[in-house]
Amino acid sequence: MILSLLLYYIIPLLAGIGSGISVSLASGTASPIIIPLLTIMYNVPLYEAISTSLFIDTLIGLSAGTIYLLKKKVDIQIIPLIGIPGALGVIIGSSATTSTSETQLSLIIALILLLIGLNFTINGI
């Protein structure tokens, strides 16, 4: 009982810390850690896991980005050139995924993760 309660709270805590470190070092996403954690350990439906992961990424990214901004490591001029089209991409992607079945979405995510893993294997991190 106590062990299961500790695991219930400790694993997400460690995953959160690891995600934050990973995202801040590699400027990536925590979704490869957060989505499986939520779907496998907590039985969260895939759509909810994705949206929760995106919100967690926002918090992590905002924190990391603020630190880099304060240390004058951010190229502010490029933000509108990539950020505005990125916001449009989010609208398109979110609209597309919310109209996709959970099975299809699982396959798409699996394919993306497989391609990322293959790329890391061939080119290194």
What share of residues is helical?
A: over 70%
Instruction: Report, as a whole number of angstroms, the end-to-end distance.
Output: 40 Å
Q: Report the C-alpha radius of gyration, rounded.
A: 16 Å
Query: What are the secondary-structure elements, in order, as H or E?
Result: HHHHH
User: What does the overall shape look like?
Assistant: globular
List the domain count as a whole number.
2
Q: Please give the number of β-strands.
A: 0
What oligomeric state best describes the polypeptide chains here? single chain
Overall pLDDT confidence: 86
Strand composition percent = under 5%
Please state the structural category. Answer: mainly alpha
Short description:
The protein is mainly alpha-helical and 125 residues long. It has helices at residues 2-26, 31-41, 46-70, 79-98, 102-123.
Please tag this protein with its features:
125 residues, mainly alpha, 5 helices, globular
Task: Note down, in words, how this protein is organized.
It is a single chain. The protein is mainly α. The chain has 2 domains: 1-74, no CATH class; 76-125. 82% of the residues lie in helices and 0% in strands. The protein has helices spanning 2-26, 31-41, 46-70, 79-98, 102-123. Helix 1 packs across helix 3 (46-70) and helix 2 runs antiparallel to helix 3.
